[in-house]
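thoughts on both lines:
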Amino acid sequence: MGRKSISIIRRQQIIEAFYEVAKIEGLENTSIAKIAKKMSINPSLIIHYFKNREELIFGLIEFNLEKYSQIYQEQDFSGKNPLVALLSLLDRLFSKGWNYLYDDSVYYSCYALIFRDQKIKNKYRELHDSLRNMLSEAIQKCIEEGSVELENAKQTAELIFIMVEGAYYYLGMVDSESEYDEKMENYKKQAINLLKITDSTPISNHV
């Protein structure tokens, strides 16, 4: 039991070092030797836990997706009014919180691998589907209580995620912080408009 625990911790440390090096060097330029240097260990120790660079990359992608999902996990919506919870979730989706959780350059370098590796594609798809389902469930609760007038929660959740993902892709090219904030706020307002909220009172704190 103790050995397994140490192994998990060591693997996590290696993946985190991989991520830190990839942020500086770029994913394509990050080698096992550079990771070992970052950690001040022998490269053979990394090989002990990861057979090759491909296995390391898959570990990095799992780390990547874990960070990505934290936008939901860091806030407890249980016990809240469904509409307040939904609007709070949109606040987090359309915020800089994503940027603080994970480096865009590493994220998109990993994402590009879905076009070459079916296993990686499946992993990304699994996470994105689960996040869409979570948003859909939050919208459905609001439909059931009558705070939004929608017929299809799943379709609306899909449209909002398309807006979120498109926003972050485009805003990665925007250098001006004020322009970034203005555009992101506008995207959030458009997402809220999609919800067709019947009571405007809870919206005031979220627009």
